[in-house]
Amino acid sequence: MKTLQELRRDIDAIDDQILDLLNSRSRLAIEVGKVKAGENRDFHVPSREREIYERLAAGNSGPFPNEAIRSVFREIISASLALESPMKVAFLGPKATFTHLASLQHFGLSAELVPQKSIPAVFEEVSKGRSLYGVVPVENSTEGMVSHTLDMFMESDLKINAEILLEVSHDLLSRTGRLEDVKKVYSHPQAIAQCRNWLDENLSGVPVVDVASTALAAQIVGEDYTAAAIASEFAAALYDLKVVRHRIEDQVNNFTRFLVVGRKMADRCGDDKTSLMFSVKDEPGILHRMLEPFAKRGVNLSKIESRPLKKKAWEYIFFLDLAGHISDPVVSDAVQELENYCQFVKILGSYPRAK
């Protein structure tokens, strides 16, 4: 059996080999960037990333875990893309929001992440070409849809390029770390709603104040020793706060879904989801007729959501998520039939289903 020192020498030798291989891969990535520029191709191809992850996971013999493969290669790909061309991504800020964490999870540490003050500002950054992509929240498993994001799709021509699922865990943060010092709590309304039972049981009678984001709450508390913020542990590290209590959310398995928006439709990957919006006149049997094109073709619908049409009373916009890519014949045929019953239909995007 080898000694600890011998094993560490072996690990160091392998790390040196990994570093040499990373540099070799980086040189190839630079050449790929030159070829793409010469042929006027998109430098970022999400379907290629997914192909790399799936190929490596399928060929992994262990003991290195498959879940870690995606994390490691996300950073390798992120750094390689930065060598080809800086990738600018707008997100609903400020820093340390859960949207920021979702952006890091999807694009890696080497992407240039640019915080924006509002969801419309994220859409504008991408629409005007100042950022390649934008990341916005769309749905929480406890509190439901984010109406501001749905409303933006009524006006914008951006396409959904990907979805991100992030497990959301809320901590109570303060400067002192002591529960007895908390005389006021700040957070985003959704975070407050997700922790309502805990607040009622542990801080009954303490005022709770809505602010624009969990990160802004952390910033405010950084200057107030009598206040606490409901935010992420990441926010605690960024704003020099202490954790009063971990995981104060009322529901376990609390996930938020985020959308990545861009100016082009994503390529088909074989495990896709399509989102669309449409408007119908309120008349008897219309709900059955608009769902029938999908039902008779066996197209699985994962979500249907309605929003009032602001310009006309008692008329609605429907948002629909379904399995498959818009280029799949069965999906395109169903959507084409749906158009017969609608005032308008708009494809919001076809993109890889989050895993």
Number of helices: 12
Which overall shape is indicated by the principal axes computed on the Cα atoms? globular
Structural class from helices and strands?
Answer: alpha/beta
Tell me the Rg in angstroms: 23 Å
Question: Averaged pLDDT, please?
Answer: 88
**Spatial separation of the terminal alpha carbons:** 41 Å
Describe the main β-sheet briefly: 6 strands, mixed
The helix/strand order is HHHEHEHEEHEEEHHEHEHEEEHEEHE
Helix content: 40-55%
The stretches of 5 or more residues where confidence is low (pLDDT under 50) are none
Tell me what portion of residues adopts beta-strand conformation.
25-35%
Give a count of the beta strands, DSSP E runs of length 2 or more: 15
Could you explain the architecture of this structure?
- With 355 residues, the protein is an alpha/beta fold.
- It contains 12 helices and 15 strands.
- The protein has helices at 4-38, 46-59, 66-84, 98-107, 119-127, 147-155, 189-194, 196-202, 214-221, 233-238, 286-295, 329-338; strands at 88-92, 112-116, 133-140, 144-145, 159-167, 171-174, 184-187, 208-210, 227-231, 242-245, 255-262, 272-280, 301-308, 316-323, 344-352.
- Strands 1, 2, 3, 4, 5 and 11 form a 6-stranded mixed β-sheet that branches. Strands 8-7-9-6-10 form a 5-stranded mixed β-sheet.
- Helix 1 (4-38) crosses helix 3 and helix 11 packs antiparallel against helix 12.
What structural keywords apply?
single chain; 355 residues; six-stranded mixed sheet; five-stranded mixed sheet; 12 helices; 15 strands; globular
